[in-house]
Design brief:
Elements lengths: L1 H45 L4 E5 L20 E5 L2 E2 L4 E4 L6 E6 L8 E10 L10 E7 L16 E8 L6 H7 L10 E8 L16 E4 L9 E8 L2 E7 L7 E7 L1 E2 L5 E7 L6 E14 L3 H6 L8 E2 L14 H35 L3
Antiparallel strand pairs: 1-16, 2-5, 3-4, 4-16, 5-15, 6-11, 6-16, 7-8, 7-15, 8-9, 9-10, 11-12, 12-13, 14-17
Length: about 350
């Protein structure tokens, strides 16, 4: 009877030991998860809780478009085939060989800013039988016609392009790019020019792009938006094209240096293929950002020419993962390996103890 009692006690001790070890493992795991989530939230909120935004009406374009005109008192000026209607500024109609633009007359001297663009692209053409696209500009030059979505080539500043037609030949894409890096059009991309960098129209801007994302924006029944933010020399672009009122990441590039005093604008062009390219509104917000003394010292030098600190970022966003994605992939892989090792040790220890007890 005493022997049976002792065996029961041993079994209870073994079960208790296993339970305590598993409980400790779970505690370690969940503690690690909580720390990770808290860290992620702090990174995500870092750019938001320290910023306030103020609408700059003199740099904004919205209904009823009273600030658009040819007079010297107007804040915005039309160029080419662009026209104002009650619902939008139509840069091009759905006709061949059209070119139009709208440009701000007032240079922007904000250090940190955010531009929200409400636009619409629609027409009679079927998929890949439409073109050519729309561009949003922050450049030194203004009111200059040219081949880059209706604006001049060799521009100085930032261009964000909604490219709706794949110019590069299909057979070249198949041999040059993998399935993962081959694009789906329409495609949103960004480029920083310094006055000597040419946009490669035949290759859809790949050689000089900072990055981009596909965006199915044609012939939609809901509103479509592009969000461009420039804060602490970091360029962030997001899109809202699904009708869910949610921003989706497109690109996020640090080390982008844009001078102050440039002009905002929008342009579009059609060729043998066409579309209606409409701008419903351009709303510019001034962002007030708290900076540390170190950040102030780093940014005190005046920027005179647009540039990107890490030029290797250009055109490589499609080829590899971002540093954040790589970091979390490695982190979760290490966490998974750690848990497997701990569980394996517990199981082996329990098996080894039972094995030794068989000999007594």
């Amino acid at each position: 009877m005493a022997a049976a009692t002792n065996n029961n006690c041993q079994i209870l001790n073994i079960l208790s030991d296993i339970f305590l070890r598993q409980t400790m493992t779970l505690k370690i795991y969940w503690t690690f998860v909580i720390i990770l989530i808290t860290t992620c939230r702090s990174f995500a909120d870092d750019d938001n809780h320290e910023m306030e935004e103020f609408l700059k009406r003199e740099h904004s374009l919205s209904k009823p478009y009273q600030g658009v005109g040819s007079s010297s008192s107007s804040h915005w000026e039309l160029m080419g085939d662009a026209m104002v209607t009650t619902e939008q500024v139509r840069l091009t109609t759905d006709m061949q060989s059209k070119q139009g633009a709208v440009w701000s007359r007032i240079p922007c001297h904000l250090r940190d800013w955010e531009l929200q663009v409400h636009f619409k692209i629609h027409g009679q053409g079927k998929k890949n039988l439409n073109g050519d696209g729309l561009a949003i500009w922050y450049t030194k030059e203004r009111m200059q016609k040219g081949p880059v979505f209706g604006n001049q080539d060799l521009f100085t500043g930032l261009g964000v392009f909604v490219d709706t037609y794949p110019n590069e030949e299909k057979h070249l894409e198949k041999t040059r790019y993998t399935t993962r890096t081959q694009r789906i059009f329409p495609f949103v991309l960004a480029m920083v020019g310094n006055g000597s960098i040419s946009y490669d129209h035949e290759r859809d801007g790949r050689p000089t792009e900072l990055g981009g994302c596909n965006a199915m924006v044609r012939n939609l029944n809901h509103d479509t938006f592009i969000f461009i933010r420039y804060v602490r020399r970091r360029l962030t672009i997001m899109i809202d094209i699904d009708g869910q009122h949610e921003w989706r990441d497109c690109l996020d590039i640090p080390g982008v240096r844009l001078p102050q005093g440039y002009y905002f604008g929008a342009s579009a062009v059609t060729g043998d293929l066409s579309d209606n390219h409409d701008v419903v509104s351009l709303k510019l917000y001034q962002l007030t950002v708290l900076r540390s003394e170190t950040e102030e010292k780093e940014e005190e030098d005046e920027i005179t020419l647009p540039s990107v600190d890490n030029m290797n970022l250009m055109g490589e966003n499609e080829e590899g993962w971002s540093s954040i994605a790589m970091f979390f992939t490695i982190l979760f892989s290490m966490l998974g390996c750690f848990l497997l090792i701990v569980v394996g040790l517990i199981v082996y220890s329990h098996w080894n103890e039972n094995r030794r007890k068989r000999f007594y």
